[in-house]
Design brief:
By secondary structure, this protein is α/β, with parallel strands linked by helices. It has 2 domains: 157 residues, P-loop containing nucleotide triphosphate hydrolases (Rossmann fold), CATH 3.40.50; 106 residues, no CATH class. The protein contains 11 helices and 9 strands. The strands form 2 sheets. The protein has a 5-stranded parallel β-sheet with strand order 2-3-1-4-5, with helices on both faces. Strands 7-8-6-9 form a 4-stranded parallel β-sheet, with helices on both faces. α1 crosses α7 and α4 packs across α5. The radius of gyration is 20 Å and the shape is globular.
């Protein structure tokens, strides 16, 4: 929440076509004062000028369309400067697999904002990702590749409602059969654990249901997966840690373990949980 002369600032950035517009609409509907397509090098000046005029949290859309040359590369230093002034700054980075972005531009028949006659669409997507690398390193990632608009909006609301803190951790469950999500700092493969999918009574359930929970909690191998590694990352100079927990289908083992790790870490960090494939029904 904005207080006094300091602001709660959420920067929305990432790849074109990955969901930034959905994010800004969602944030505006949830009480944020939103400004889109600000030149990266003017961020600090915008905050200085607009801060005294608003009482709502501030969401700012910044991407490679905002500037030429190295403008976007100034963003990490400006973020550090705003934090030094007492502002609470979070960064939300949207991304998607290259083939998904290419399909979206094809379906909408809109050109990529960076594309020109000298590059193909695939080359343009790769170039934009390269230019955004310095920003991606200091951001919380959302992979929109397989997310519907409603699911994407829910993830944005979840992140926006998480208290601002020094250390923010996301546990995301997923199924390897549906692809590994982008932007993970750590990925744990839990396919080595006993699979509730092969119990007909447990197959329709998910890792949030009591039957699956009891099945997994009774296995000592599962308990051995819950290790005390998080404090080491908390002590590093980072704001976000994104942890992927993957099983075969993304409904049983990964869901349960992500929930358990979130409970274990609740006192160490601001924790989020995201279950990408929990609604997919495997036969």
């Amino acid at each position: 929440m904005t207080t006094g002369n300091t602001l709660d600032i959420l920067l929305v950035t990432g790849q074109s076509g990955a969901g930034k517009s959905v994010a800004l609409r969602t944030l505006e509907d949830n009480g944020f004062y939103c400004v889109d397509n600000i030149p990266a090098e003017l961020l600090a000046d915008l905050v200085l000028r607009i801060g005294p005029r608003i009482s709502a949290p501030l969401a700012i859309g910044v991407d490679t369309r905002s500037a030429t040359g190295g403008g976007i590369d100034t963003l990490p230093a400006q973020i550090d400067g705003l934090r030094a002034e007492g502002h609470a700054v979070r960064v939300l980075f949207f991304e998607a697999r290259p083939e998904v972005l290419a399909r979206r531009f094809s379906e909408t028949r809109r050109p990529h904002p960076m594309q020109d006659a000298a590059r193909t669409l695939a080359e343009t997507i790769a170039l934009e990702r390269e230019r955004l690398a310095s920003v991606a390193d200091v951001a919380h990632h959302i992979d929109s590749s397989d997310a519907a608009s409603a699911q994407l909006a829910a993830w944005v609301r979840d992140f926006a409602g998480t208290p601002t803190g020094h250390f923010n951790v996301l546990f995301q469950s997923f199924g390897f059969k549906h692809g590994t999500p982008l932007g993970m700092d750590l990925v744990f493969d839990v396919r080595c654990l006993k699979n509730p999918h092969y119990d007909p009574a447990l197959r329709p359930q998910s890792g949030r249901d009591a039957g699956v929970a009891a099945f997994l909690a009774a296995d000592p191998t599962v308990q051995a997966m819950r290790r005390n590694w998080l404090p080491r990352y908390r002590d590093e100079p980072r704001s976000y840690l994104t942890v992927g927990i993957g099983c075969t289908g993304g409904r049983h083992r990964s869901v349960w373990l992500a929930e358990q790790l979130a409970q274990d870490c609740a006192e160490l960090a601001a924790v989020q949980i995201r279950h990408r494939d929990i609604e997919r029904i495997s036969k």
